[in-house]
Queue: 3 jobs
Job 1
Amino acid sequence: MSIQLEIVTPEQRIYSGSVDSVKVPGTEGSFGVLPRHVPMLAGVAVGAISFKEPGGGDQYASTSGGFVEVDGQSVTVLAETAELAGQIDVDRARAARQRAEDRLNRAHEEDVDRIRAEVSLSRALNRLKLAGGL
């Protein structure tokens, strides 16, 4: 038995297919979803969505937050941004990490939005971790 997984952003559909299980980084903590899961809505945090395709290995997608809807037969992740691990541009992620670190280092000198810089750093580190670029 499998469950239908959809991962979408405002720009595109990142993934669509049948999976055996899904693990989502929820805003209240990570949680797993199996077929016939009780219906629910939850917030998605910065982190890695992992899922297991039937007969295949674990797959991963980086997300920067959003919402997830589970209805027992399907899981729909509506993400602000998302990338499959194999499609992450490591050089771009490293550049984003460097920009965020530079902003944080200047935070005491200039009018820098520290929270925004910390979130940017978190997203970049998550993408690098999934892409094996750390």
Job 2
Amino acid sequence: MRLAPLQRREALQAVHNEHTAHLVDAALAARIVDYLAGAADGDVASVVEPALLSLVCRGINEARKRAGKPRFDDTLFEVEKSRIVADFYRESLADQT
């Protein structure tokens, strides 16, 4: 099954909804989506790859749990955003060496 890129509003809904509002507020959800879209703040024409969105949100959530934080926050996002994809590839390829 092919996962098509998400429009900005769809990606925002995936990050911030009734099931995730206790973890991330709307403003931070917008920053996460805009970062992944490589777009200027609020660019409604931007798209996000769902696999990358899932990977980043999972990575931030795992970091949140390790830090014992109740919610995502700006500092957590800023620190983790550059590590998540690199860590994923390193962990995925660890048994290949």
Job 3
Amino acid sequence: MIDLLATAERPRMTVAPEVEDVLQSVPGWLASVGRKGKDPAADRLSPRVYGDDDEAADEFDRLMTPELDAGRRADRDRYEDVIARAVGDGTVLDEEEAFAVLRVLDEARLVIAARLGIDSDEWEPSPLVDASPELHLYHLLGWVQDALIDAAEH
């Protein structure tokens, strides 16, 4: 399915064609996150930094949101490239690629968690949520994160 190995102190990622579509869909899915106050995922990705000072919080958002959004888009582009190269024979990731993939996976897991209502390690899914494809994707992306970290550390 997905194989992550350490080779010459750099992780090598191989993605089976059966999961390529799932992994390639993540950036487009992240681009669909709505606006703060309307989508719990947007609120989770961009928390209010000055909770008690609306003017400072608005100024921070005005100054930083474009830069944060540009960084997220760049990470998603790099992620898409890595996944495309990883299908079949696999690809070796440099440090920047590994970090970009980890950031996109983390962003996706935050979005899923917010929309499913996961707010702590003690969260227990309801039977309806437990069967949802989103929860399965949440676990798959977490496994990929863990495997990539492990491969990068060795």
